[in-house]
TrEMBL record:
Gene name in the database record: INPP1
Organism listed in the record: Terrapene triunguis (Three-toed box turtle)
This protein's name: inositol-1,4-bisphosphate 1-phosphatase
Family: Belongs to the inositol monophosphatase superfamily.
One Pfam family this sequence matches: Inositol_P
Phylogenetic classification of the source organism: Eukaryota, Metazoa, Chordata, Craniata, Vertebrata
Class in the EC hierarchy, top level: hydrolase
GO MF entries: inositol-1,4-bisphosphate 1-phosphatase activity; metal ion binding
Annotated PANTHER family: 3'(2'),5'-BISPHOSPHATE NUCLEOTIDASE 1, INOSITOL POLYPHOSPHATE 1-PHOSPHATASE
Claim: Metal-binding is one of the keywords in the record: yes
Keyword Metal-binding: yes
GO terms, biological process: phosphatidylinositol phosphate biosynthetic process
Reaction(s) catalysed (UniProt annotation): 1D-myo-inositol 1,4-bisphosphate + H2O = 1D-myo-inositol 4-phosphate + phosphate; 1D-myo-inositol 1,3,4-trisphosphate + H2O = 1D-myo-inositol 3,4-bisphosphate + phosphate
InterPro entries in the record: CysQ/Inositol_MonoPase, Inositol_monoP_metal-BS, Inositol_monophosphatase-like, Inositol_monophosphatase_CS, INPP1_dom_1
Amino acid sequence: MAALLKSLVGASEKSARIAQLCRQEEALFQLLIEEKTGTDKNKKFVQDFKTLADVLIQEVIKHDFPELHGHIGGEESNQFENKTLVVQVCATQQDTASLLFTILDRNQPAAELLAAAIHQEVALQDPALDAVALAIPPERLAIWIDPIDSTNQYIRGQARVAPIGGICPSGLCSALVLIGAYDRSSGDPVLGVINEPFFREDPLTHRWQGVYHWGISYQGTSLSSLRRPPLRPEPCVVLSSSETLAIQRALRPLYGERLRFASGAGYKMLCVILGLAEAYVLSEGSTFKWDSCAPHAILRALGGGMVDLEAALQAWRAGQWGALPELTYNQPAGGAVGAERWANRGGLVAFMHREHLEVVLATLATAAL
Ligand code: 2IP
Ligand code: CA
């Protein structure tokens, strides 16, 4: 288990390094902003670049854990646009660079920078990670990856956004790497790694320093790099800036000024994990399994969880308080196609303290939504 956890943390470090590099190195940043004139084109290219990052990180994990082959998922198309080329981590950095050179339209500097990041040894000096002795056979697990969540903020790149109550409404800090593992048969989240590539900017070198967090929750054993935050007397809830007015109106009397807004689905979940918010409420089906799996596993490791909002409200209204449905990760949504199959379609509530989840549900269950 320690080996798998270490490998996933290592993969998150590589992904974070790629995310940092893309902002620091002109050759890579150009890939993100290229063809900015046609919004559709730009969107497509960003999506493609993101898919490339996604596939590369999946390949890093496959490389380390062949037994996970076929059980690593990410953004909608796991195939990169150019289907005649198989994106993979090659035996040598030079070979990976040559492959990327072809994929990236003969852009040599970009190919070399990416290959170097992928092949760089990640030296993890983390005694807490080494001490994890839990045995979970990797063949029971499958993986969801989001190599860069909050892409919009990542591209926009605002470095200094003042936090409100510890929560940044926008900015680079909301761009996160999310890697989660779930139990293939039960669908429960088991292990999560969240990497913050833009945690701190070195004032001298202007280089970004990252930080990672992890958590495991499996068969009654819970371990995490973080501590469970307390339930504060004046709780706060965090929402998407595009959350419906009905939800905002319903929650306003309870939270007042402590109704906060932030970009990034993963970032809002991280705010709950770190105790900056007591809950994240989302009424729309705009997040996906790769957004929620890693944060959900960490929440569970700390005694919290993440429920399907629509199903939880239904259960609450029916008086079935004991069985509030947590999100699961192994079943596609019936009748959906493409990425939608893996959407958290009923919305969600991420919470740390069960009593606070109950407050949220009791409030929303009687509101006109
Ligand atoms: C997005 C990203 C958005 C979020 C959306 C996610 O993932 O996290 O910020 O919307 O739900 O799917 P919002 O910021 O309104 O919460 P990605 O950036 O990977 O597409
Ligand atoms: Ca995402």
